[in-house]
Specification:
The chain is mainly beta. The protein has a single domain, classed as Rieske Iron-sulfur Protein, CATH 2.102.10. The chain contains one helix and eight strands. The strands form two sheets. Strands 1-2-3-4 form a four-stranded mixed β-sheet. Strands 5-6-7-8 form a four-stranded antiparallel β-sheet, with no helix packed on it. The longest helix has 5 residues. The N and C termini lie far apart (about 30 Å). The N terminus is likely disordered.
Length: about 100
């Protein structure tokens, strides 16, 4: 169950993103998680199962797909629960 959905198109909202939190920028198709050290981890917001847009689950610290229930780690983009078999595409500039 998703308790909190965070989606943003605003750069000012991104600047306010607190540590250990995530957000989805729909206009850029980005899912961004800021870890406890302040580093941002960027992934495609498109679920690798059937292409729906993921949402941020603040309780579980994961990106969740509302279409079929796949869940992805905010830190790595790896699959936590299927039906997706592949991680979210990495969009970090340093990788």
């Amino acid at each position: 169950m998703i308790l909190e959905v965070s989606k943003s198109n605003s750069e000012s909202e991104m600047n306010k993103l607190s540590e250990d939190s995530g957000i989805v920028k729909e206009n850029e198709k980005l899912a961004i998680y800021k870890d406890s050290t302040g580093k941002e981890h960027r992934f495609s917001s498109i679920c690798t199962h059937l292409g729906c847009s993921v949402v941020w689950n603040d309780l579980e610290k994961s990106f969740d797909c509302p279409c079929h229930g796949s869940r992805f780690s905010g830190l790595s983009g790896n699959v936590i629960n299927g039906p997706a078999n592949a991680p979210l595409e990495n969009k970090n500039n340093d990788d």
